[in-house]
Design brief:
The structure is a single chain. This protein has a domain of 38 residues. 23% of the residues lie in helices and 17% in strands. The chain contains two helices and four strands; from the N terminus they run ββαββα. The longest helix is centred in the middle third of the chain and has 8 residues. It is globular and about 35 Å long. It starts with 6 loop residues before the first strand and ends in a 10-residue tail after the last helix. 20% of the residues are buried. The chain binds zinc ion (2 copies). The site of one zinc ion (ZN) has 9 residues, from helix 2.
Length: 60
């Protein structure tokens, strides 16, 4: 079972948290895996655009 109602960015410089579906959609975005499964993006939109890695944060 996957949760689409909460997410936390793994980036150390960011640590963004979403606590409901709206925040998840706004801050992280959803990914359609192609087989009907919807997953939350692991990194928030900002970190994805900055190409952050957990060991190499670019945002802070
Ligand atoms: Zn982030
Ligand atoms: Zn980041």
């Amino acid at each position: 079972m996957s949760s689409l109602t909460q997410a936390r960015c793994p980036c150390r410089g960011c640590d963004k948290v979403a606590r409901n579906e709206t925040e998840v959609d706004e801050l992280f975005g959803l990914r359609d895996m192609g087989d009907g499964t919807i997953r939350v993006q692991s990194y928030c939109r900002e970190c994805r655009s900055l190409h952050c890695k957990a060991s190499e944060p670019q945002c802070n």
